[in-house]
């Protein structure tokens, strides 16, 4: 897929001090405030940085939407896609015109493990495809005091204009080249993937009733979406760490599978992998010549 110009302007800034943060953030927000007819820009960042912005902007702070990033980045990378799509639908101008300053919670969930960090790099890469038709301008700010050098260097590959930008599908494929750990020897074979049946099995493994209902529906939806091969689903884990692995008859063959927001904004059954990605902490898809392995992990 060629790197064609798109309306989506996806920028990156790296800082290691409060002064460097303001040196990047203030001109960016000023660019939005000076644009005639644009909606108010939003800054989604840490409470500390929000305080810096309020002080530095003075009276202009009232013209900027300031959002604590713990209210925005509340779950998985797919949840962040849904949050962004919903915000754009509600607040962006014609064609998606709006300025967004974004900072994930790198010292929280997003940075708690190399695997979690990789999911967020995937999100940054796929954003170039998901939001390509929109005239949105996003500045992703990375604080080396919380994100760390390895995350920053990986993120550069997901942002155009950094000199090391990788085409999103290629970068996603590189992340998917990391093999999944094999299922444990005592994994349970599931003969039927109806939500009620799966719910009983995961409740037996200690998953709370409300969580069991969500996870079981996600399994059923994903199985229907990918064409689950009969008699090949496996279940293992305890409590919130239950894992279900599906085996599909055909390759999924789409790096955006489950990331493209549906027309309906409410989370509903019938949305396949989108539903699964919104419910589960991880949905791993690995294609091969005989089909695809789809692994869902609740938390």
Describe the structure.
With 299 residues, the protein is an alpha/beta fold. The chain has two domains: 9-176, Rossmann fold; 188-297, Histidine kinase-like ATPase, C-terminal domain (Heat Shock Protein 90, 2-Layer Sandwich), CATH 3.30.565.10. The protein is built from ten helices and ten strands. It has helices at residues 18-34, 47-57, 69-72, 77-91, 114-130, 149-156, 168-176, 195-204, 209-226, 272-279; strands at 9-15, 42-45, 65-68, 98-102, 136-143, 188-190, 233-236, 243-248, 282-288, 291-297. The strands form two sheets. Strands 1-5-4-2-3 form a five-stranded parallel beta sheet, sandwiched between helices. A five-stranded antiparallel beta sheet has the order 6-7-8-10-9, covered by helices on one side. It starts with 8 loop residues before the first strand and ends with a strand. 37% of the residues are buried.
Can you tag this structure with a few keywords?
single chain, Rossmann fold, 5-stranded parallel sheet, 299 residues, alpha/beta, 5-stranded antiparallel sheet, 2 domains, 39% helix, Heat Shock Protein 90, elongated
Give a brief rundown of this model.
This protein is an alpha/beta fold and 299 residues long. Helices cover 39% and strands 18% of the residues. It has two domains: 9-176, Rossmann fold, CATH 3.40.50; 188-297, Histidine kinase-like ATPase, C-terminal domain (Heat Shock Protein 90), CATH 3.30.565.
């Amino acid at each position: 897929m060629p790197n064609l110009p798109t309306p989506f302007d996806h920028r990156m800034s790296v800082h290691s001090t409060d002064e460097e943060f303001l040196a990047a953030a203030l001109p960016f927000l000023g660019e939005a405030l000076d644009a005639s007819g644009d909606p108010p820009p939003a800054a989604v960042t840490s409470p500390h940085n929000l305080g810096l912005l309020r002080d530095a902007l003075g009276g202009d702070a009232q013209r900027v939407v300031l959002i604590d990033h713990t209210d925005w980045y509340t779950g998985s990378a797919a949840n962040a896609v849904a949050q962004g799509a919903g915000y754009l639908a509600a607040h962006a101008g014609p064609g998606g015109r709006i300025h967004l300053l974004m900072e994930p919670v790198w010292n929280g969930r997003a940075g708690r493990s190399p695997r979690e960090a990789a999911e967020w790099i995937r999100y940054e890469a796929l954003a170039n495809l998901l939001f390509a038709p929109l005239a949105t301008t996003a500045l992703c700010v990375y604080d080396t005091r919380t994100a760390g050098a390895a995350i920053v260097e990986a993120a550069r590959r997901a942002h155009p204009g950094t000199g090391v930008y990788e085409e999103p599908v290629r970068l996603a494929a590189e992340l998917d080249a990391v093999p999944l750990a094999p299922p444990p020897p005592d994994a349970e074979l599931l003969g039927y993937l109806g939500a009620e049946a799966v719910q009983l099995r995961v409740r037996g493994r200690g998953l709370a009733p409300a969580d069991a209902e969500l996870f079981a529906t996600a399994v059923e939806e994903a199985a229907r979406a990918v064409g689950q091969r009969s008699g090949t689903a496996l279940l293992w884990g305890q409590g919130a760490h239950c894992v279900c692995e599906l085996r599909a008859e055909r390759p999924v063959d789409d790096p955006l599978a489950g990331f493209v927001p549906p027309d309906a904004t409410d989370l509903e059954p019938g949305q396949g992998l989108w539903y699964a990605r919104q419910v589960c902490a991880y949905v791993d898809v690995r294609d091969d010549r005989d089909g695809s392995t789809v692994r869902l992990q609740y938390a």
